[in-house]
Amino acid sequence: MKIGFIGTGVMGTGIINNLLKNNYDVTVYNRTKAHAQPVLDNGAKWADNPAALTKKVDVLFTMVGFPKDVEDIYFGENGIMNAARAGQYIIDMTTSKPSLAQKIGQLGDEKGLHILDAPVSGGDIGAKKGTLTVMIGGHKEDLDHLQDLFMTFASKLNYFGSYGSGQHAKMANQIMIAGTMTGMTEMLVYAKAANLDLEQVCQTLQSGAAENFSLGSYGPRILKGDYTPGFFAKHFLKDLRIALEEANKMQLDLPATKEAKHLYEVLVDQKKLGNDGTQALIKLWWK
Amino acid sequence: MKIGFIGTGVMGTGIINNLLKNNYDVTVYNRTKAHAQPVLDNGAKWADNPAALTKKVDVLFTMVGFPKDVEDIYFGENGIMNAARAGQYIIDMTTSKPSLAQKIGQLGDEKGLHILDAPVSGGDIGAKKGTLTVMIGGHKEDLDHLQDLFMTFASKLNYFGSYGSGQHAKMANQIMIAGTMTGMTEMLVYAKAANLDLEQVCQTLQSGAAENFSLGSYGPRILKGDYTPGFFAKHFLKDLRIALEEANKMQLDLPATKEAKHLYEVLVDQKKLGNDGTQALIKLWWK
């Protein structure tokens, strides 16, 4: 079974390395070839564009930045969909629009492809360790067929239903994280102003009803002044925009998520800090 | 050592039962005597007012609803401070204003009392199990003296510094929880509208980067339609008001916490659901 992978960012690199470790034959494509060098050094092969890659493989994963990038690699010049042949498995792991996942899925049905939307949670550490949580939409039997392959980089596979429902589950995930990130940030801002020992505050809160993954994972990084991206602020803002666009379509008002989106807009669009990690939100208060 | 306890609510009852189990001699007072019946049945004695109780005991705990109630029992008619004698230990575990804790502490210093502010985290379950997290301000040696007593109902004692700093740490805790509660609520609202299996969504999110105590503890209660208070919505609103008042004094703008306060105001003040648990926030969307 030949595997293709488009997108060698933080997450993609971790996943590809796990596939290589499990002796899969992996060919990759990335817009900026230099960013693929680490996985090429580990034994991955290179293809010159999405179409060329699609023609070489049985199973193709994609994990790029924005819905616009997904549109480009699936439907653009030298795109996946024109090159794909019946029977191929094509899985988008980008966190992207549920409506786009539905569009790809329906076109895939017409062409006899096996399509899944499969965004993940668990961050850079999960990708590296192979312990990602995957949220999946599409035909259940297609997931069953790829179970072993997924488990080389995931510890949990969660099937949610038809095309786009993996993306919807991921949106729910990001809405939850919007709460933990804004809560953690404002908590630290308050605690610092009140002259509390911040390390002790983090430890104390983690042992009670305020406990959460963001605090445990990003609290210590903030206290060390480490804003390197486990997850890019610009990508999180993209996710919140998709979530609120979808909520809007469903006539839902989600004011706390809106406020989180607004804060990340200030960070990314005004302060131009989108290439920092999500924990850089605290820079809106701390200099 | 004779123990006094004022306030036999959900939390107080759990703590008193743990003191009784450890064979402490406990006398209690509560504004509504009927609410003290469960601990009286378990062997606690009764005093007719805060002053009468203060005169009988060596160590006095207070855990009431609002800062106004703390003012009343400490400074009102038949209040604690007029009845207290040098050498007594008096600990307020109500989540209350840092400035009020400072006032009680300074007056206590003048009178030769040992004062601590010691709000807790861990909810009704923590109080019952004796696994509360305590956040403490005051003189460190007074905490050291009471270590064993505290450990009958707590699993962690966290000393933060001078009078009021226990309350400040608790405010930080509540700001964090404002994020997890609004995030969880809006996440469930979104997931339900997207027709996802909500139980599976909760399980999936708890295994990844969205994981948090509120989701683990209150998610299942919401799915069962259980809005009984582990923690009263009206008390959480009180906490958020104190936190934002303190933030304001420190010239901090905390927009996500403000939005959370606004949502709980709608729940408590407009919808009159303050006697529900904090998880009832979802009733702003679900009928």
Automatic annotation (TrEMBL), chains A, B:
Signal peptide: none annotated. The keyword Disulfide bond does not apply. The keyword NAD applies. Residues 164-284 form the 3-hydroxyisobutyrate dehydrogenase-like NAD-binding domain. Keywords: NAD, Oxidoreductase. Residues 2-161 form the 6-phosphogluconate dehydrogenase NADP-binding domain. InterPro entries: 6-PGluconate_DH-like_C_sf (IPR008927), 6PGD_dom2 (IPR013328), 6PGDH_NADP-bd (IPR006115), HIBADH-like_NADP-bd (IPR029154), HIBADH-related (IPR015815), NAD(P)-bd_dom_sf (IPR036291). It comes from the Bacteria. It holds the Pfam family NAD_binding_11. Belongs to the HIBADH-related family. This is 3-hydroxyisobutyrate dehydrogenase. It comes from Lactobacillus kefiranofaciens.
